[in-house]
Predict the structure.
Amino acid sequence: MINEKKVKVMTKMALYESKEGYQDLLICEYDRKDYISFHTIISLLWVTLGYLLIAGLVAFINIELLIAKMSGALVIVLMGVAVSGYVVFLVLFGLISVYIYSKRYDIARKRVKRYNRNLTRLRKIQDRENL
Amino acid sequence: MSGIFVLREQLQNLYAKYSVIVDKALQFILAFFTFFFINSNIGYFKAASSSIITFILAVICTFLPSAFILLFAALLILIHTYGLSLGALVVVAIVFLIMFIFYFRYTSKQALIVLLVPVAFFLKVPYLIPIGLGLAASPVSIIPLVFGTIIYYMITYIKSSASTISGLDNVIEEMTMAAQQIVANKELWLMVIAFTLCVFVVYSLRRMSFDHARTAAIVTGAVINIIVVVIGAVAFSVPVSYIGLLFSNIISALLAFVLELFVFSVDYTRSERLEYEDDDYYYYVKAIPKISVAAPEKTVKRINERQSDVRREKAPSGNPKRRKRTVIKGTSAPRVKSATGTSQIKLDDLDEQQGREATSDEILLKKTLEDELNLK
């Protein structure tokens, strides 16, 4: 005979597994600190690429002006601006990444805890059925 | 107004039952419009611009997650740009890559906004998107909104400058020209500023606690759009059709009201189909959310004179027509009174003495009894 209580718990769990479950369980395989630092480092590498692309695009837009006014002093100034801009980008996106990934980890952890509670309930129901 | 609420709840109920079909239909429509917009504007790569390709791509995207529409749209734009010039392709690819690195790598949940912006421009109601986002989303949605606006103006630039770009000698010149024209487009930045301000204003107003805050937010959002675009057009000499701007904002505000009534203020919970098993059974479950559709508000017309708390007493002798009214106190149960061969249950007594109004069930019961006992 079908146990209604068991079906309800199993439905809840299947619903979770079909949506965020898979991703959450992957996230929770990491330790919190490892997860956040790993993804922040990856983000900073991507940001470096993004910054190079933006700098390249800006250089292309102003290429005629740059060629016309090219001098040693200008090159030093531009390098200084580029490096400080890069540092600002790194700090900004580093902070954003830490915030996003720590929040993502905390939410996933909370959902996985709820999922584990449901697993315990399901096991108890099954134990009662087997008695 | 109650009719609208009932219709809204019926829609909600309908969506809960057929959410899979509705979702797929909407996804198909969005994908079709997006690909049609791209192909009709910059269809330089002939093999990819036919209506059959548009349809097939839309069908494929219907059965994939919605973020794939954005991916396919980006690929289609790149293919068509390649059909025009290699230099333009490099610039467009860099713009897409920057968008991916700084936003979509973190979240793809709001990817659809990027697609909705060009479609809204195509349908001549671009101002609907910032007003809608202000009503339904957070200020973070400004980022995909800006990206969508950039993509729209990039497509219009490629369309309008096709002959100029293809006439250039080398790739470097093409790249420089395309990058300069896309970034130096004043109308693009004017729209970005107007949309950003609109989202902030609508979002701030709709969160306030005064009456009709959301209505005020919609109207103010439309006004902000008009003011910013007019000031920007005058200050930066951007050619703008003022009548078009006015009508577009009016239509956008009206559509925002409709969306507010039928989409944003309703929780469209979808039904789910699940499959799982235990030791004894395979389960195929369809989970439908519980939604109660309220009965329309009924107006009960009182035909009999209220006699609940009044007893007519015989008038003093000498004037048989005059009767004295006396208030009865302490009656606790509905009474049945014999009148012209029929019985009448008096619910009014019960309601008033319990100090509450009759519920909708009681009103309906009373009306049914009145009808059945021919008390009209």
